[in-house]
Recover the amino acids of this structure.
């Protein structure tokens, strides 16, 4: 396969304005995310940005960026728009969507998501971690992944059956915190973006449910930790401390 890593970024953020350009030890946050993606050594890394300021910052740091329509509704729409612009001949047959607010991301997680695509039956690969904090089990902001993974047999990967904000499944066993990183077969990304939102997607406010409604198989790899997503000034300070260490 010939993968490409695309990182969607836009300035509009209610809790942390101008988030992609937030300073982290002299570099914009989006540049740190780009560097983590490059550390995966999977191939080309491109920032799919909504504003010229982001593009300028990325190019100043030696990176590649492409402007996309700022009115696009989601990161998935943004990365496909960028992909069509920079790769009209479809040389890249796998697309990895890395969120633009993960400056402390372990590059190995990107490779783990991509490795799931080696199964030709898998259209989308994603990640999850076992929930260890009791409060997160009932927190609707912590998305739960329901997957056919037998932890008693020490399985680490399995097919996703559902994603939800509720506490599920019932019975004894761990719960999984979904990590919103996706590796797509290119054809799956195209089919996903072309389709209208599904009923359950709108009800749960989780776009990955559209993929399941379309019959696109999603596989999950269980990893050790959930990467820090920077959404607030407090998160930004935590990221500064982590990067300093």
């Amino acid at each position: 396969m010939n993968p490409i890593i695309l990182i969607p970024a836009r300035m509009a953020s209610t809790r942390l304005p101008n988030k992609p350009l937030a300073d982290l030890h002299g570099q914009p946050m989006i540049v740190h995310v780009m560097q983590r993606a490059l550390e995966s050594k999977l191939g080309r890394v491109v920032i799919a940005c909504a504003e010229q300021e982001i593009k300028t910052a990325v190019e100043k740091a030696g990176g590649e960026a492409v402007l996309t329509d700022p009115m696009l509704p989601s990161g998935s729409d943004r990365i496909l728009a960028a992909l069509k612009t920079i790769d009209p001949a479809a040389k890249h047959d796998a697309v990895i969507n890395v969120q633009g607010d993960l400056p402390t991301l372990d590059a190995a997680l990107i490779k783990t998501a991509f490795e799931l695509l080696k199964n030709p039956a898998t259209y989308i690969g994603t990640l999850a971690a076992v929930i260890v904090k009791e409060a997160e089990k009932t927190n609707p902001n912590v998305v739960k992944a329901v997957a056919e993974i037998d932890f008693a047999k020490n399985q680490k990967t399995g097919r996703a059956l559902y994603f939800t904000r509720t506490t599920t499944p019932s019975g004894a066993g761990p719960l999984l915190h979904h990590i919103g990183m996706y590796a797509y077969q290119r054809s799956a990304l195209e089919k996903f973006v072309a389709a209208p939102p599904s009923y359950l997607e709108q009800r749960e406010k989780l776009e990955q449910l559209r993929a399941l409604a379309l019959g696109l198989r999603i596989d999950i790899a269980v990893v050790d930790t959930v990467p820090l997503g920077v959404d607030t000034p407090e998160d930004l300070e935590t990221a500064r401390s982590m990067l300093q260490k």
User: Anything to note?
Assistant: DSSP finds eight helices and eleven strands in the chain. The CA atoms of residues 136 and 142 lie 6 Å apart. The longest strand covers residues 176-185. The helical segments are 29-39, 52-60, 75-86, 107-115, 186-194, 199-204, 208-213, 233-244.
